[in-house]
Amino acid sequence: MCLIVFAWQPESPRVLRLASNRDEFYTRPSAALSEWQDAPGVFAGRDLQAGGTWLGVTAQGRFAALTNIRDLKQNAGPRSRGTLTADYLLGQDPAPAYLDRIMRDAAEYPGFNLLVGDRQQLWHFNSQEGRPRQLERGFYGLSNANLDTPWPKLLRARKALSDSLEAKDEALLELLADRSQPADHLLPDTGVGLATERLLSTAFIIGEAYGTRASTVLNLHSNGRWNITERSFGPHGVALGEVTLNR
Residue 33 and residue 30: Cα distance in Å, rounded? Predict the structure, then answer.
């Protein structure tokens, strides 16, 4: 997953409002959002190659999401990042205790940003920074660097979320579908070359081999309710289906 924008409002009726795009190679097998048959009470898409997930929620409102870090110099690591989100959703440890354990093993994974929490608290961990951070009320964005690194698509999506905070979920799905191309001089230089920086610079990525495969909107409410919608896509941005779940 390569773009997440979210509003964290722990003292409000809707404590979390999140919009996210997962970008991945189309050849990597994945399952759409559903309740996991081998883990009732976990609701997430699934990476069928390594068994993890990029974003999910539990019946009780535990939440986890993930992005990778784009850094050609980083250690690849032998373990799949998607297990980090899955293990949190499958477990019972509070977020601080879980992240304390993850810190010790972070080098075993390629670079990642991890969000974990529930209705009471939300935490962020960047594996390169190495220190968990409890998030205060506010608007945030994650792409493939650190929290709120001002890449153009992050800034644009975070503002769109702020402007449409009280709108219906369709408005958040529309911001995730944004294909606006930033000017070259605004693009980060992550070592992948200008052509690839251009490809990856849009909120919704369209390609033949790689692109946005899922757009997800999640709302967590203080009364114990939640709802999540995921749209799936294939090569060249072709729509494959939509799933909405409520609890």
Answer: 10
